[in-house]
From TrEMBL:
This is 5-carboxymethyl-2-hydroxymuconate Delta-isomerase. InterPro entries: 5-COMe_2-OHmuconate_Isoase (IPR004220), Tautomerase/MIF_sf (IPR014347). It comes from the Bacteria. CDD domains: CHMI. Coiled coil: none annotated. Pfam families: CHMI (PF02962). GO terms for molecular function: 5-carboxymethyl-2-hydroxymuconate delta-isomerase activity. SUPFAM superfamilies: Tautomerase/MIF (SSF55331).
């Protein structure tokens, strides 16, 4: 936690590598101080098939999923920092957007939480 999933048009990867794009998102998230660096996860999914508005050629959207508990101001700052850093990296992109959504702690589960040895229900248990 958190997860940042980048959807983009395939041609974006002709402008910058997947690694460069993912690193910018990772570093922007890390720079906020909201997350432990070893908790941040970033992945990228390019799309070959998509339709955009007339005269628009490409897109990139970051879906950020974080554990509940941050303020609206913190989430807005996170979204803005990722947007700013990606705009610096890809200044000529047609559509660039970011949204941040929250996981509800009560309904979240992972491998650590189901471990029978994890008596304290620490979601980082054993990591």
């Amino acid at each position: 936690m958190p997860h940042f999933i980048i959807d983009c048009s395939e041609d974006i990867l002709q402008l910058k590598t997947a690694g460069e794009i993912m690193n910018v998102v990772y570093e922007a998230a890390d720079a906020t101080g909201l997350f432990a660096p070893n908790d941040i996860k970033v992945r990228l999914q390019p799309y070959q098939y998509y339709r955009l508005a007339e005269h628009k050629k490409n897109f990139l959207h970051v879906f950020g999923y974080i554990m509940e508990g941050r303020t609206t101001k913190q989430k807005a700052g996170l979204s803005r920092q990722i947007s700013l850093r990606l705009t610096e990296l890809l200044p000529d992109i047609s559509f660039l957007s970011v949204n941040i959504s929250e996981f509800e702690a009560a309904t979240y589960s992972n491998k650590a939480l189901i471990n029978p040895e994890n008596k304290g229900k620490d979601r980082h248990f054993g990591l």
